[in-house]
Design brief:
It is a single chain. The protein is an all-alpha fold. About 0% of the residues are buried.
Length: about 60
């Protein structure tokens, strides 16, 4: 994977930061999907916990 870190003398632009964040989020979703396929029981339990958290959350 290429090194995408900006050098010390040039500040990172907002567009570069957004692109880096989008790439990270894509990889994170891919990793979660893989984990869900490999461990369906744990994935189901995690979904249930998340649903319970959302039900008990107060706006």
């Amino acid at each position: 994977m290429p090194d995408t870190q900006p050098s010390d003398d040039t500040p990172e632009t907002a567009a570069q930061r957004r692109a880096r964040r989008a790439q990270f989020l894509r990889e994170l979703m891919e990793a979660r999907a893989l984990r869900d396929r490999v461990q369906p029981r744990r994935a189901r339990a995690a979904r249930m916990r998340q649903q319970m958290r959302m039900r008990t959350f107060r706006w």
